[in-house]
RNA sequence: GCGUCGGUGGCAGAGUGGUCAAUUGCAACAGGCUGUAAACCUGUCGGGCAUAGCCCUACGAAGGUUCGAAUCCUUCUCGGCGCA
């Protein structure tokens, strides 16, 4: 018996979608569920109580960031991540004083700050990107006899940023002060034990989609070896083992055969759940996801890492994914864009300067009944013109309201999907949403 | 009234004879953002066209010097400061 218990309540006919409940030591997560991202133990601009009001049941923080600042010992001594950030969770699923949390392993940062640093590569990539240089061919790096890049401090200091992957782990420089650090699967697990989240992830290597097949395989196999080492370290800690669930991460780039192989291997190892990782081009996501899911055991919860946009989330749910996390809702909001039922709009555009439509018009397609007084005041009380003013004038409140609006939009979308699955009409729900959202 | 310093594109403010349709910041206009180095980044920003270029109109106004002026000279005008 692991730290969490996952129960599937209902499956959708005609696709892989399912609704269920994950019981964690700190309360229940009703799936499909979206976890707002609080990288540094803070969902930017939003209070924990507000997250609860918006319908969030779990938040996800980041190992890399909390390790560098304030350091995992501080979080541990504070009483763990949830207590440290005063996250009490939703009353709906509460079974403890503090709420459910997750931590990402830091593997993605190695990718985004190292291999992809200063390249036009991110979680999602356009197909026309060709200037990517692979980590093993980056200028200034030397190769070991095994063909792996060797960390060169001199080069690192010249670059300012660098992350070098070898079979043992990853050496990287801090983005805060340039200091040299090293993560191994063992170390990542150890840090995440200290952080104390209910669900945490094995340290993986996220590759760029522009890497050749051979490198994708090499990285995937390395991720598998790291997965085994992560599990071993986790199992040796009896105390953590009872309280925290470890998810393994499927990689394999855009290649369906690698995705299937990775899914089989990660499933075989005995994790408490599965994460689907990777950096995709838009076109490759669907195939890679479907290939991986086909090989996953039904009974384990599945997390689609870093996803996403409304359409991608629904795609994930249809493919049997249970958990999602994404920075887009808060980042887009903070930058002045909000989701509407007809797609994304930029509130700073001239046309919203004197548009007195309330924000509620943007999201009345799902679950209006879920709105309590607090949410109503957010979405009905503020107009686009007011938001335009706040965002243009740089008022913090603008970023906060837009972030809350977007989180509510996504949380409602996912909650609506859950209801639809339970009611047996998920396909219709998804089609209706996608038709309107992508109509332009 | 005398003296002095100054008037540059929406604003602030560089530029003191050609490399200036004019640095830079802000504003404006648009785009981007998917396990957050992100309250961030990118592009446009006098007008026109057959738009890697060309042509107009432009650095308070009018004249002048010069092959060439935002830059030098004269007058006018407006503003800051000082003295009466």
Task: Describe what is shown at a glance.
The chain has 440 residues and is α/β, with parallel strands linked by helices. The chain has helices at 48-54, 63-68, 72-78, 81-84, 107-115, 153-159, 185-195, 213-236, 238-243, 256-268, 282-293, 310-318, 328-334, 373-381, 384-392, 396-423, 426-437, and strands at residues 5-11, 18-24, 27-31, 33-36, 59-62, 101-104, 124-125, 142-143, 149-150, 163-165, 170-173, 180-183, 199-201, 245-250, 273-276, 280-281, 302-304, 323-326, 337-340, 343-346.
Calculate the mean pLDDT score and round it: 88
| First-last Cα distance | 49 Å
Radius of gyration over C-alpha positions, nearest whole angstrom: 21 Å
CATH architectural designation of the largest domain: Alpha-Beta Barrel
The total beta strand count reads 20
What percent strand?
15-25%
The gross shape turns out to be: globular
Provide the low-confidence segments as ranges.
128-159
How many domains comprise the coordinates?
2
CATH superfamily of the largest domain: Queuine tRNA-ribosyltransferase-like
Largest beta-sheet characterization = 8 strands, parallel
CATH class of the largest domain: Alpha Beta
Structural class assignment: alpha/beta
And the CATH topology of the largest domain? Answer: TIM Barrel
Which sequence of strands runs across the widest sheet? 4-18-17-15-14-13-6-5
Percentage of helical residues?
Answer: 40-55%
Q: Helical stretch count?
A: 17
């Amino acid at each position: 018996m692991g730290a969490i218990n996952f129960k599937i309540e209902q499956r959708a006919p005609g696709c892989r979608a399912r609704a269920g409940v994950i019981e964690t030591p700190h309360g229940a997560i009703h799936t499909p569920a979206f976890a707002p991202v609080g990288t540094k133990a803070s969902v930017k601009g939003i209070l924990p109580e507000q997250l609860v009001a918006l319908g969030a049941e779990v938040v996800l923080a980041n190992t890399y960031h909390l390790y560098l600042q304030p350091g995992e010992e501080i979080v541990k001594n504070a009483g763990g991540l949830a207590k440290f950030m005063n996250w009490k969770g939703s009353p709906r699923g509460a079974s403890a004083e503090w709420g459910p949390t997750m931590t990402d392993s830091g593997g993605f940062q190695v990718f985004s700050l190292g291999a992809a640093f200063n390249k036009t590569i991110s979680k999602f990539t356009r197909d026309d990107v060709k200037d990517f240089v692979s980590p093993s061919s980056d200028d200034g790096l030397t190769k070991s006899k095994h063909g792996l890049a060797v960390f060169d401090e001199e080069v690192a200091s010249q670059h300012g940023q660098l992350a070098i992957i070898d079979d043992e782990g990853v050496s990287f420089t801090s983005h805060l002060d340039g200091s040299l650090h090293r993560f191994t699967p063992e170390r990542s697990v150890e840090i995440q034990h200290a952080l104390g989240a209910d669900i945490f992830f094995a340290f993986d290597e996220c590759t760029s989609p522009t890497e050749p097949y051979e490198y994708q395989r090499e990285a995937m196999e390395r991720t598998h070896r790291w997965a085994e080492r992560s599990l071993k370290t986790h199992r040796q800690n009896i105390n953590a083992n009872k309280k925290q669930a470890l998810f393994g991460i499927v990689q394999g780039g855009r290649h369906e055969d690698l995705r299937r192989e990775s899914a089989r291997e990660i499933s075989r190892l005995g994790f408490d759940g599965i994460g689907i990782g990777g950096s995709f081009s838009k076109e490759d996501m669907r195939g890679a996801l479907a290939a991986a899911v086909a090989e996953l055991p039904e009974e384990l919860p599945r997390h689609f890492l870093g996803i996403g946009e409304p359409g991608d989330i629904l795609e994930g749910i249809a493919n049997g994914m249970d958990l999602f996390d994404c920075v887009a809702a808060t980042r887009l909001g903070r930058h002045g864009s909000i989701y509407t039922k007809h797609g994304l709009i930029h509130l700073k555009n001239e046309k919203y300067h004197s548009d007195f439509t309330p924000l509620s018009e943007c999201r009345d397609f799902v679950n209006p009944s879920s709105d309590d007084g607090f949410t109503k005041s957010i979405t009905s009380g503020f107009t686009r013109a007011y938001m335009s003013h706040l965002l243009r004038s740089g008022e913090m409140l603008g970023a906060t309201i837009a972030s809350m609006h977007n989180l509510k939009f996504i949380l409602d979308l996912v909650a609506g999907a859950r209801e639809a699955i339970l009611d047996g009409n998920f396909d219709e729900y998804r089609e209706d949403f996608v038709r309107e959202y992508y109509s332009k």
